[in-house]
Amino acid sequence: MPSINPSAAQFEAFLARVPADEPVVMLNLLRFRELAEYPAGFDATPCSGQEAYSRYGAVAVQRIASVGGRLLWAGSALTTVIGPEDEEWDSVVLAEYPSKQAFAEMLGQPEYQAVSPHRTAALADSRLVATDPQANP
Asked: What's the CA dihedral at 61, 64, 69, 70 to 10 degrees?
């Protein structure tokens, strides 16, 4: 089953497990739809999933910066070397936030919420993993 948005339980676990007032790097694994699937009545020109994600990303990067975060890295995924053979990704994004509170604040911004339908329309599946950039493996 595809995972596009966190469940309430997943978001609560994020808030409970990620240390407060410490940076968090979000690892995004993205698989795009061939054609974006917008909800009925949403005003958007038909496009590919990748194009819809670009619409989202142009604003999301600004919203990340508005809470003191930054885009660390983004690139195309080539192939899964270790993992389920049927789990392939199109893109990988690393975004750093100064804290979990900053991430949550961004999600609540009206500008972010207005552009998030592009993300949902774009994605066939995704993973979002909160990581501690200060921890040693």
From this structure: -10
3-state secondary structure of 102: helix
Question: Distance (Å, rounded) from C-alpha 47 to C-alpha 63?
Answer: 23
CA distance 128 to 66: 20
**Residue entry with tokens 């993993």:** 129
Within the chain, residue ranges assigned H as helices are 8-17, 49-66, 100-108, 110-122
Please give the single-letter amino acid code of residue 48. Answer: S
Q: How much is the pLDDT for 17? A: 94
Residues 67-95: what's their mean pLDDT? 95
How far apart CA 100 and CA 21 sit, in angstroms, is 7
Asked whether the beta carbons of 93 and 28 are under 8 A apart, the reply is yes
- Comparing CA positions, the residue from 130, 126, 129, 120 lying closest to residue 2 is 126
The CA–CA distances, whole Å, from 58 to 7, 40, 111, 131 equal 25, 23, 12, 23
pTM: 0.92
